[in-house]
Structure formats: structure tokens, C-alpha cells
């Protein structure tokens, strides 16, 4: 990839793009916010693809701004952002992004730069970015083409959306419900990697656009079904209730049909690693951890597992009885529960009140030479990352997944 970029982008172009790094760092959010505004005004049909809740929160704009900034900063060595490209390409694959979408994005990204930066975005700057975008988008298109081809060659694999039937619906807590899915056509479907997700396509009466949402698969692969465990997002802090989560909780029942995409995602359990496995989750972030937990117990019975889950209290703690039974039945598993605000009836059902801090974490773990995976709300993610860095965990052993557009947790 680096060689191709070097050949297609001359030094002058690369120098101009690199010179825009400071202004992108300062005005990136403004540019990407304007980009989405322009694109949706001219292509409202793309609202069927982009998460409008993330648009309202500004999360999508920040994620795109970070990607554009990273591309500019690494324009000499685009290979350095290949992991980020692959992560985004996995999300694009789950949304069925196509090559013809890229010229639309490029057009309005350049217009947004011009609008926001004014005279700073000279013709030379815009021309340089047009060339750079052509190379960068080509990398995405080529990467996604390979992913789509691999999916087509997978037994039971499919592209676009496929109807799955809800064969069971189980309340896991006051706010989390699991949906068990099997293909409506009865044909084979691919096994996934623990930690991956599917995209649900929600076509809701009264809504002008379809809604696409990613949900982690919460069971071990190979069980004969896909399972997602969905938190109902209620209205909070001025933000409206989650459209899709409430739709699933209130309108989807056993026997309902859900169009879904094939499993995607690069947050995957390394099953070759035999060192202790540490799985840490906050709230509904336990869903990919459950898949990793079940898989390890079934396939690697000698591997030590430390399963740490943080929740507000027992009422919203999903799958607690299931994990407790696993803990009693399997010597390799050491399960811990942390409640931020335990209720009176939670007495004896948790190991720590408050939050997961380094002092407590280091007291229950045998070594920092372990594989760490974590997922949860943004605050939890940042705290866990900082805990692990202070615990001197190697960067290569720190693995995490964001629900929604990726954000920086290292600050």
C-alpha cells in the first residue's frame, strides 16, 4: 500500500497535505460536521446507511475527523494506518458500503474543506487533497473488495442483508434482552470469531429511513444460532431514546424476522495465546466478552480466565446467574463483579463496591503478562486503558472495542 501511495502521490502533493495537519487538528470537527450536512442535503438516501443518532451526538464527525487527520499525518507512510483502515473497512463491510459511495464522500469532503477553511483552502490545497483522497479511498475500496470476496467464498456467507428469524427472546436484566437468530431460509451460515458483531437493519413503521445498528454476538460460535444481547437505551441527558434498541425490545418477538449482515469486526479473541485471559466489561460491554468466555471454556479448558464485570447494580447486571454457574463449574474461571451503586438486595453478590481501580485489579490478577480484552462505556474504557498502562501491560496485549465510532481513550 505504501509503495502505491508513493507512486501515485508526488512529493509536492504530499508536502501540501502534510502542511494541512495543524489546521485539520484545529478545524477537523467543523469540516466533517459541514461535510455531513452537505452530503445529506444532496444525498438524503444515505441516511439509510449512516447512524443518525451518532450524527446528533457528533460522534461520527469526530471519528471521521480523526481518520482524515491520521491520513494527512501519515501521508508519506500510509501503511502506518493500515490497522485503522482495516477496522473501518470491517465496519463498511457490515454496512455494505460500495465503491460508488466513495466519490460522493470525496466530493462533499472537499466542498466542506473549502467552506470551512475559506481562503486557506487554496486551489493547490484542494487539488492536493483530491489526489490524496483518490489514493486513500482506493486503499479502502481494495481492502473492502478483498473482504467481500472472502465472505463470498465462506460457507454460508452472504453479502448485503439476509433475513434471520428470532427463535427466542430472553430478558437478561431490567434493560438487556437477548435475541436468538437462525436463518429464515434454513441454509448454512458462517461461524464467526469471538468478539465480532452483526448489523441489524431495522425498518420501522413511521420512520423515513431504515436504521442500521451493530450488535456484538454474545454467544460462542458454532451453537447453531447467532445471539445478540441488546440494551434498551432510554432517553437521557437531553438525548432521545434509542430508536432501534426500543424497537427490538418492544416490537420484535419470537417469530419476527430481522435482516442482518454477515459477522464482521477485527476485535477478535486470539485463541492461540495460552497465557491468562483477562476479560473486563462495563454494562452492555459484556456482550463480546460472553462470546470470548464461552469459547475459551469450551475450546481451551486449561487457560486461566479472569472475568471482571462492572455494572450499576444487580438489577441491570445481565447474565449474572449464568456466569456464576460457570464459575462454580470450571476451575479455570475466576469471575468478579463490581457494582457502582449496589442495592440492598445485592448484598453478597458482588466483590467490590465502586469502580475497577488499579489497586484492586492488581490484587486479583496473578500477572500483567496476560491478554487483556475490554469493552464498555467511554469512561470505563478510558479508565481500564489507564489502569493497564500503569500496570505496565504491553501495548500488544491490550485489546478493546468501542460500541459506535471509535474514539481516543489514550488521553
Automatic annotation (TrEMBL):
Binding annotation for FAD: 197, 213-216, 402-405
Active site: 102, 144
Its biological purpose: Is involved in NO detoxification in an aerobic process, termed nitric oxide dioxygenase (NOD) reaction that utilizes O(2) and NAD(P)H to convert NO to nitrate, which protects the bacterium from various noxious nitrogen compounds. Therefore, plays a central role in the inducible response to nitrosative stress.
Species of the source: Virgibacillus siamensis
Cofactors demanded by this protein: FAD; heme b
Family assignment from sequence similarity: In the C-terminal section; belongs to the flavoprotein pyridine nucleotide cytochrome reductase family.
Residue sites binding NADP(+) per the record: 283-288
Site feature: Involved in heme-bound ligand stabilization and O-O bond activation: 36
Known EC number: 1.14.12.17
Domain FAD-binding FR-type per the UniProt entry, residue ranges: 159-270
Marked site (Influences the redox potential of the prosthetic heme and FAD groups) residue numbers: 91, 401
Swiss-Prot/TrEMBL keywords: Detoxification, FAD, Flavoprotein, Heme, Iron, Metal-binding, NAD, NADP, Oxidoreductase, Oxygen transport, Transport
Domain notes: Consists of two distinct domains; an N-terminal heme-containing oxygen-binding domain and a C-terminal reductase domain with binding sites for FAD and NAD(P)H.
Presence of the UniProt keyword Transport in the record: yes
Domain Globin: 8-145
Name the UniProt record assigns to this protein: Flavohemoprotein
EC category name: oxidoreductase
Record note on cofactor: Binds 1 FAD per subunit. Binds 1 heme b (iron(II)-protoporphyrin IX) group per subunit.
Highest taxon, organism lineage: Bacteria
Reductase, as annotated region: 156-411
Binding positions (heme b): 92
Amino acid at each position: 500500500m505504501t509503495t502505491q501511495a508513493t507512486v501515485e502521490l508526488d512529493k509536492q502533493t504530499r508536502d501540501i497535505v502534510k502542511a494541512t495537519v495543524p489546521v485539520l487538528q484545529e478545524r477537523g470537527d467543523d469540516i466533517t460536521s459541514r461535510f455531513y450536512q452537505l452530503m445529506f442535503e444532496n444525498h438524503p438516501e444515505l441516511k439509510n446507511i449512516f447512524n443518525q443518532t451518532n450524527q446528533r451526538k457528533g460522534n461520527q464527525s469526530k471519528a471521521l475527523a480523526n481518520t482524515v487527520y491520521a491520513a494527512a499525518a501519515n501521508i508519506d507512510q500510509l501503511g502506518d494506518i493500515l490497522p485503522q483502515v482495516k477496522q473501518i473497512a470491517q465496519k463498511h463491510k457490515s454496512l455494505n458500503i460500495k465503491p460508488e459511495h466513495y466519490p460522493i464522500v470525496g466530493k462533499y469532503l472537499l466542498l466542506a474543506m473549502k467552506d470551512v477553511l475559506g481562503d486557506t483552502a487554496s486551489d493547490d490545497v484542494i487539488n492536493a487533497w483530491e489526489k490524496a483522497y483518490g489514493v486513500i479511498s482506493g486503499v479502502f475500496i481494495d481492502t473492502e473488495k478483498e473482504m467481500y470476496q472472502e465472505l463470498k467464498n465462506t460457507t454460508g456467507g452472504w453479502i448485503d442483508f439476509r433475513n434471520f428469524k428470532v427463535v427466542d427472546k430472553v430478558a437478561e436484566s431490567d434493560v438487556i434482552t437477548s435475541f436468538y437468530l437462525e436463518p429464515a431460509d434454513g441454509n448454512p451460515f458462517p461461524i464467526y470469531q469471538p468478539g465480532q458483531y452483526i448489523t441489524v437493519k431495522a425498518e420501522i413503521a413511521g420512520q423515513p429511513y431504515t436504521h442500521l445498528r451493530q450488535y456484538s454476538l454474545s454467544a460462542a460460535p458454532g451453537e447453531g444460532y447467532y445471539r445478540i444481547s441488546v440494551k434498551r437505551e432510554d432517553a437521557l441527558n437531553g438525548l432521545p431514546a434509542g430508536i432501534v434498541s426500543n424497537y427490538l425490545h418492544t416490537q420484535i418477538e419470537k417469530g419476527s424476522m430481522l435482516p442482518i449482515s454477515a459477522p464482521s469486526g477485527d476485535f477478535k479473541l486470539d485463541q492461540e495465546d495460552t497465557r491468562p485471559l483477562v476479560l473486563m466489561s462495563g454494562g452492555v460491554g459484556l456482550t463480546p466478552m460472553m462470546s470470548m468466555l464461552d469459547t475459551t471454556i469450551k475450546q481451551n479448558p486449561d487457560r486461566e480466565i479472569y472475568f471482571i464485570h462492572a455494572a450499576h447494580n444487580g438489577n441491570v447486571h445481565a447474565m449474572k446467574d449464568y456466569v456464576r454457574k460457570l464459575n462454580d463449574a470450571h476451575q479455570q474461571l475466576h469471575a468478579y463483579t463490581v457494582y457502582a451503586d449496589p442495592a440492598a438486595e445485592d448484598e453478597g453478590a458482588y466483590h467490590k463496591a465502586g469502580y475497577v481501580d488499579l489497586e484492586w485489579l492488581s490484587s486479583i490478577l496473578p500477572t500483567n503478562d496476560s491478554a487483556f480484552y475490554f469493552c464498555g462505556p467511554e469512561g470505563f474504557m478510558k479508565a481500564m486503558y489507564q489502569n493497564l498502562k500503569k500496570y505496565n501491560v504491553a501495548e500488544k496485549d491490550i485489546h478493546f472495542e468501542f460500541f459506535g465510532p471509535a474514539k481516543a481513550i489514550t488521553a
